[in-house]
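User: For this week's homework, look closely at the record that follows, marking any run of repeated tokens, and judge whether sequence predicts the tokens.
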Amino acid sequence: MSRAGELFTTALPRAGIRTLLSAGDTSLLSPARSADEPPHTIPRDPAREAARRELSKRMYHEDDPSLFQRALDAFWDWLGKLFNAASTATPGGALGLIVIILAVIAVLAALWWRLGTPRRQPTSSAALFDDRPRSAADHRATAEAHAAQGHWNQALQERMRALVRALEERALLDVRPGRTADEAAAEAGRALPAHTDRLRTAARDFDDVTYGGRSATEQSYHRLAELDRDLERTKPQLAASSAHTAPNTRQGAAE
């Protein structure tokens, strides 16, 4: 028997050989009729074709990986080649590439922590209040509830609304639904001039959080809450009282 025939007969299971042999094939592999005659052999090409047909049967592929597993293996192979190519081009090899990746992640994390989640918001100022009329006490309670949960953006917004609503309730500001935070700060500064700068800062913080995509902090909320409490204790400087004071002063000087 030739080497191809030996490989064919040894590679196939006994059941496969039994399947391949038909009534006409048994004469090919039958033992020699005498010691002087060489055994019958199968040519190389038919043996290869028979082996291919036999090995293509389902019974030999039951343990093959699934299509998903093969795709996943191909992806990891591609990723490994990409990483090797990048590490080759990076100073320091694989260690240098890892250091660069970690540095980029650290920078992105720092920007995310500092600036917060990017949000698309209109840049122009809008109304301070919505269409639902609520008292200053209601806004303060809502602000404190948000602050207790660490929701500083919502807490700062509600505290600013509470501050403006309290000024409206004291008649220091006229009730105007379309008023913006900047307008409220400018109008309140005329009645409470000692707090003009703090009012402007509060309005800017409100606009940055509400329309500028910035994130409020615990410090900014407590700063606004302190301003709200200070305004409650501050007596307004009214134009009428100034006008009455001036004649009395001039009359006393004349006497």
